[in-house]
Write a structure and sequence with these properties.
With 400 residues, this protein is an alpha/beta fold. It folds into two domains: 282 residues, 3-Layer(aba) Sandwich (Rossmann fold), CATH 3.40.50.300; 87 residues. It contains nine helices and nine strands. The strands form two sheets. Strands 2-3-1-4-5-6 form a six-stranded mixed β-sheet, sandwiched between helices. Helix 4 links the parallel strand 4 and strand 5. Helix 3 runs parallel beside helix 4. The longest helix has 87 residues. The structure holds guanosine-5'-diphosphate. The site of guanosine-5'-diphosphate has 15 residues, from helix 2.
Amino acid sequence: LFPDPGPWKVPPARKVTLNQPLGIEALPTQRFVKSKRTPYVLNVMVVGETGLGKTTFMNTLFNTDLVESIIPETPQSTKTVVISPKTYELVEDGVSLNLCVIDTPGFGDRLNRSTDLEPIIEYIDEQFQAYYDAERSAEFRRAIPDTRVHALLYFIPPTGHTLKELDILALQTLSAKVNVIPVIAKADTLTPEEKVSFKRSILGGLDAHNIKIYPSAYPDDREMIVELEKHIPFTVIGSDNFVNAAGKKVRGRSYRWGVVEVENVKHCDFIYLRELIMTSCLHELIDITHSHHYHNYRAGLLRRGGRPESILACDEQYEVRIENTKATLSEEMLRKEEEMRQTFVQKVREKEQSLRQREEQLNQRRQQLMAELEEQRRLIEAEEREMNDMLNANRSTRRK
Ligand code: GDP
């Protein structure tokens, strides 16, 4: 993603035998201790129509009463999507995770979903911009607070048909900016056969519209996700309650006909999704956000000419080269313009001269013809006079 810095010249290392231990073996422990002390940051955004079970699902995923439901009093009561980020500190075995859940209540409650997308995109871009500004400020040279969205869970209603146009538009827009993980909400409302065909039709829709979803679109570590990937788009069930299953209390939903268990792979893909986010790919989600999505945002800013005052020598050289190129181009254009002007004037002059010569030739010819005509007229008059004289002479001879 970044330009190749060129071949590094690293001298080959000679292997040395240590006479006594130096403590090198403790280096991974140093890193472990250090990273244990620094809290991890994970920012997850949840997007989907009201009532699809987003709040319940987040509570289920983190196994606590994390998020309170924000259901508007009436569907029309919110004119726009309200972005509500909430941060929680989760601690497990001395490791803390600062989890920020960004809910988007109001999304999909109106017909025009593109207006619903605007505040979401605005929020995502604002976080990129804040990171970009911090990168450039001396104050944050060390650790920049990361509020960028690392993962976006997009809740698809369990219709069992195909993706709606509105969902396609939203997925297209969002997947260009963040790691989008599509999930099928309320999977307990679909039969196993319906789940299979719905997944197939969703994947077909994503493929047809070239929508890049996480993790399939970012094949950094295929091996790790090859098993998890088979379950995309993940079917999920959320529940705030515990049910009795085979004598054990588990998270699930209880119905007259039986119970559905959240963590049962026969009922939904919850545990695969949790493994993807929490165990296998948390680091990767953060890395891809930085190296791919943030990089794209930054590149977009630079392309639009929003270059900040340069702090890097290569940036300055770039500026100078751009200025020089601009100056050379404008000089070249001026020279070309002058050349064209000269050629045009020369051509007009040549044409004028040839026209003048032609006019002169025509004048001469005219004068020549006039002179010839005058001569002929003179000759005819002389002949006429001669004839008249002869006639007069004849007449006087006859009279005599
Ligand atoms: P949100 O508006 O998307 O945050 O939805 P909520 O989490 O507030 O859930 C709305 C309703 O759906 C609640 O009554 C939940 O109990 C119910 N619900 C949540 N998850 C599921 C699920 O997986 N299956 C079913 N059948 N209902 C669910």
